[in-house]
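Task 17 of the worksheet. Students: predict the tertiary structure of the chain below and write it out as structure tokens. Keep your answer in the requested format; marks are given for formatting as well as content.
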Amino acid sequence: MNTEEIINQITQMTLLYGPKLIGAIAVWVIGGWVIKAIGSGVKRALEKGGTDPSLMPFLTGIVNGLLKVMLIITVLGMLGIEMTSFIAILGAAGLAVGMALSGTLQNFAGGVMILIFKPFKVGDVIEAQGYTGTVSQIQIFNTIMKTPDNKTIIIPNGGLSTSSMINYSTEATRRVDWTIGIAYGDDADKARAVIKRLCDEDSRILKDPEVFIAVSALADSSVNFAVRAWVNAADYWGVYFELNEKVYKTFESEGLNIPYPQMDIHLHKDA
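Model answer:
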């Protein structure tokens, strides 16, 4: 092969692939700029939407990654490289990985949903998955809680995002419920007045709504009063425990009896 033939082949290849190469380079440069602009726009949208800062890198990274994969496939296709088999292999590999990591991906998706919709936040007291505690961390795969006795509970986000949950911290006030029993034969009106006085003396108990006191049941060994009072959420347990103690001490001094379960046994003597 002489020099002229080599030059002719180079010229033909340049004419054949040159425009494709120039076009591919142009698409790569312009596509990279577009992807960068889209990534910045997604980040600004997430910031305006109040998305959790720990979640934004994941979401923007996913968007950028998908767009870059699409750009690479487009550029390779412009160069004449057959992409059908590559896409099929990539899809099969993605399916296999997804099936192998189904539990992990479910927890990841649950973490994303929790961080986006925010059914609870760090510091909230929640009841979920059979546990009650204060949320200390919200991670992408797990949520970490601290129980009142300082145990650390790690709950996978997959189940947490799809199951029922109670958030005790969303409202500023909470209702405290007591069931207070007196013995049969005691003065029910006096018991009601004593309970009402104890509630009125506690400044943490809100005046509106008014304290509710009513006979709720005529039980086997006691007449039960249902007592319901509203307090600020932070005062819940303090009011609950202290009123129990006050009722016990005051009932004794007021001549009211707190009954305990008892059984009457009747003996029949044969004549």
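Marker's comment: The beta strands are 125-128, 131-138, 142-146, 152-156, 165-167, 173-182, 212-218, 223-232. The chain has three domains: 3-100, 119-167, 173-253.
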